[in-house]
Amino acid sequence: MVTSPGSAAPHWKSERKKSEKRARRSLGNSWTLQRGCCNLLDANKKPLTMQMSFLVKCDCDLFFYTFQELKLKDKECERLSQVRNQLEQELEELTASLFEEAHKMVREANVKQAAAEKQLKEAQGKIDVLQAEVTALKTLVLTSTPSSPNRQLHPQLQASGTRGAYKHVGGHIRNKSASGAFPSSPGKPEPSSVSIQPVAKEDREMDSVLYAEFLMWKEHPSLDRSSAFLSRIYREDIGPCLSFTRSELSQLVQSAVENNSLTIEPVAMSALPMVKASAIECGGPNGFRAAIETKCALSGMTRLCRHRIKLGDKGSYYYISPSSRARITAVCNFFTYIRYIQQGLVRHDAEQMFWEVMRLRREMTVAKLGFYLTDQG
């Protein structure tokens, strides 16, 4: 049965409307795109058969599903891109954090290294001080024997408040100068019941001016003689104590004491007889000699020289008398204590330090007046 175009149109339109409804339900917002495709096919102005309508529907559905897949893929790519950007940002932050941590560790290591080097230098300085003290103690020990003890090492062997030599008489200690006032009869032993005069207790009172100068110096201790504290001591004690007849050599000795480069060593005793010799012995160390009765290189007086000095690294030795040695030793003891205060090795309070300085000043005063301790042979 052949149908006319006029009778077939309503059937085709109804089918298209049904297809559009289904497309609207299934496609939603994409109906405009599918409708454009149907309109494009409809522009031929020819009636579409059911097969052609189905093919158009399938093409539109396929295009829509492909478009939807592409949109999903785009969303997935965008999400992955965001994840990648986030990971890159986290990686950069982690790298920056690691670099910062590494720099921090390097800085801390440098600070610790600097602190360790500073402690090492301080320890080496303390070791040098201790070695110098050991050397000085060895030098003093060399001059002390059981038969002839050094009274500087053993102050208990000397009575308080007296200076000079002593001898034992009948179990008591008597001063030679005191025994000369009451001479004993020849051939008769001295009485053993000699009484000892009591010694007055020493008292002291602080000088406010001296103490104020010491406190001002102690705030910034140094060996610069421009301070009022050291200027006074140089003027009243060090200068007079190291002022000998040989002025040029005296200046060299004072410079060596200030630079801590002066060496005092004993001349070893031997069975050789006393001989006359020059006060200056050139050519560097040549072993210990016997005690030499000669002119003191500093005072110019003929004395029994049991010690000799060396100034720095020079090869010359200068034989000195016991009095000159006592004066040099007193000044050296003062400078040693002042250096200890400067280096922070003295743990006493200010008043104790002050009285120790005053005691060392008194030793310089006593030494420059000619008093010194002797060893009994």
Automatic annotation (TrEMBL):
<feature type="region of interest" description="Disordered">
    <location>
        <begin position="1"/>
        <end position="27"/>
    </location>
</feature>
<dbReference type="GO" id="GO:0006887">
    <property type="term" value="P:exocytosis"/>
</dbReference>
<dbReference type="GO" id="GO:0005085">
    <property type="term" value="F:guanyl-nucleotide exchange factor activity"/>
</dbReference>
<dbReference type="Pfam" id="PF25555">
    <property type="entry name" value="RAB3A-like_C"/>
</dbReference>
<dbReference type="GO" id="GO:0070319">
    <property type="term" value="C:Golgi to plasma membrane transport vesicle"/>
</dbReference>
<dbReference type="Pfam" id="PF06428">
    <property type="entry name" value="Sec2p"/>
</dbReference>
<keyword id="KW-0175">Coiled coil</keyword>
<feature type="compositionally biased region" description="Basic residues">
    <location>
        <begin position="14"/>
        <end position="25"/>
    </location>
</feature>
<feature type="domain" description="GDP/GTP exchange factor Sec2 N-terminal">
    <location>
        <begin position="68"/>
        <end position="139"/>
    </location>
</feature>
<comment type="similarity">
    <text>Belongs to the SEC2 family.</text>
</comment>
<dbReference type="InterPro" id="IPR009449">
    <property type="entry name" value="Sec2_N"/>
</dbReference>
<protein>
    <submittedName>
        <fullName>RAB3A interacting protein like 1</fullName>
    </submittedName>
</protein>
<feature type="coiled-coil region">
    <location>
        <begin position="70"/>
        <end position="140"/>
    </location>
</feature>
<dbReference type="InterPro" id="IPR040351">
    <property type="entry name" value="RAB3IL/RAB3IP/Sec2"/>
</dbReference>
<feature type="region of interest" description="Disordered">
    <location>
        <begin position="173"/>
        <end position="199"/>
    </location>
</feature>
